[in-house]
Amino acid sequence: MIESVEGVGEAVTGGLIAKAVEPGTGEATEAHGVCLNCGAELVGAYCHRCGQTGHIHRTLSAFGHDIAHSVLHFDGKIWRTLPLLAWRPGELTRRYVEGERAKFVSPMALFLFSVFLMFAVFSTLGGPFAIDQAHVDAGSAQELQAERRGTERKVAKLEAERARLAAAGKGTAAVDASIADLKKELTILSAAGTLVDSPDQDAGADSSVLGPGKIRADTGWPTLDKAIEKAGTNPSLLLYKLQTNAYKFSWALIPISVPFVWLLLFWKRRYRVYDHVVFVTYSIAFMSLGVIALSLLRPFGLGGGLAAMAILLVPPIHMYRQLRGAYALSRFSALWRTVLLVNFAFVAGGLFFSMLLGLGAFA
Question: Which of 186, 205, 224 lies at the terminal end of a domain, its last residue?
């Protein structure tokens, strides 16, 4: 229940943030009188001096209406943007790049809204693939136990350090404060839920001695090895973490992906890096909205097989149409670039996943 409320809160937050970065539609009605902010004479719907709108509301219903606008339709522009994004993404990209912007939701606003909405849907309904929640709960309990035992080891080391300092006649205030903080953390961990009793592996234990169902990984990168072993032991927990944590860092997909699009067209000087940023941001927003749609359909019987097929087939078609329209390419030119772009997308996804590992999102 708490996660559902949190998800709704995140959706509202995302809408408000997206609205904040979204320019006006250019379709407001005329206002008369003086600006209530700076006192300038109004000429048009907005103050020409400070930019404030000429229509100021002071009712609770208007405040709720502003939130609804932010979350649902960005003053109506969303209904002009989504059909083009879905079927003619290249035209949308090109029109936005060339300056036709007041009619459409900007790529960044749409991206922000889709990311926060994705979190809200995942928190409420889960992702597009069903997850064995029993395995997730068991894995979470095991992780909780491991965290508690690690904290206990830290406390033991600090207590030994405090004894050494006391014996040497040195101050122990800093160590005492650290021990107190860790003991508070232990109290929270002990009360967090039912813990699974299992033998603890010391840091120096032989990693080749693994329990039933575990796999051994030796890539030379301890963090990656740990993630691979966890994935083999409890894939449901890894998928759950991927669906709930990846959204926090999804913005990184934009700088990761832009260089790959640039490589496809770097000799065409009429297209700038800005064009590629708009292309990538609209593309990722579409993919995010697609995942949201699949997640919303899952409770109505959409199987994992159909969701996987949609994820495999729809993105290449969308990439092809967006490439061809955004960069005025022939069918053949758009086709071979699509093949490369699909492969680049897997590379970008791998880099993104590696970044999440490095940041400890799956630790």
Answer: 205
